[in-house]
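LAB NOTEBOOK - FOLDING QUEUE
OPERATOR: T.R.
BATCH SIZE: 2
PURPOSE: Compare the predicted structure-token outputs for two unrelated chains run back to back under identical settings.
PRIORITY: normal
REVIEWER: second-year student, initials M.K.

ITEM 1
FIELD SEQUENCE / FIELD STRUCTURE:
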Amino acid sequence: MTVRPLTRILTVALVLVSAFAAWSWFRPYEWQSDPAARFKIKQVRVIRDHSNYWVDVSLKGANHDLEKRVHLESADGRLLEPADTGLSGEDGKGITDLWFRFWLDARDFNGPLKLRLNDGRLMVRSGSGAPVMESGESKVLNSNSW
């Protein structure tokens, strides 16, 4: 008789864990991205390089304006230019995938980071404080709350 309630409890726990895993997998990087940016962040990769960091931002969207400059804006208003840029797209659709790499100091993590793209801003990071990582370590982030 006690096996049946235990089976039900384990089944409910399995369903809840599966629902959380699906939600984590399919949730957007940013819940309400700026439509003026015309792109959404897919993921961000942070790589520690001694006392500095590489921040790679991967985006998906359409109609990137190559005439407009792209900057990563730190909490203190500092505008960082990309150290590297990658673009790709499909025939007839224009540029649909973007990738930017930025070089940051630990002080650049003292607050939120926003990407200025086209005529909008995307929240790359909402947290504060430099990521705790060893030199050479890499983290892939799928949410802006880091």
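ITEM 2
FIELD SEQUENCE / FIELD STRUCTURE:
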Amino acid sequence: MPPVPGRYILGWEEWVSLPELGLPAIKAKVDTGARTSALHAHFVEPVRSKGVALVRFGVHPIPRRDDVEIVCTARVVDRRVVTSSNGERENRYVIETPIRIGEREWPIEVTLTNRNSMAYRMLLGRQAISEDVLVDPASSFRQPRLRYKLYNDVARR
């Protein structure tokens, strides 16, 4: 797909970072068939701080590497019943956090769920894709690549 002036092009899979969560590199599947975005969280627990509803959760950002764990805390913006691609309904916490893909950064809503059996730790749904972004389903990684080596300094379990 040739570049379109004024448009930002994503492939069907992209490297993303979630800087406020301390997640510098995650492979995400860009899924325009999914309404909401989802992030892998192997545990999720509600907490309160000064009357604010928060959620604390653990992420294994590298598939098949449970020894690398990032524990995150974020403000809860909602709880929603989400129907997964296999038809299962799940009540999920929703957080808002900035996402960075290439040179661009913008806020998105993300649901938290265990994606341990999935190939991608994150699913980028259509609500997170702005009007000036095009998705080229025939290509991968249209934006700069990141590397899992960014987690080398993270304490191992």
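REVIEWER COMMENT (ITEM 2): Residues 4 and 116 are 36 Å apart (CA to CA).
FOLLOW-UP: none requested
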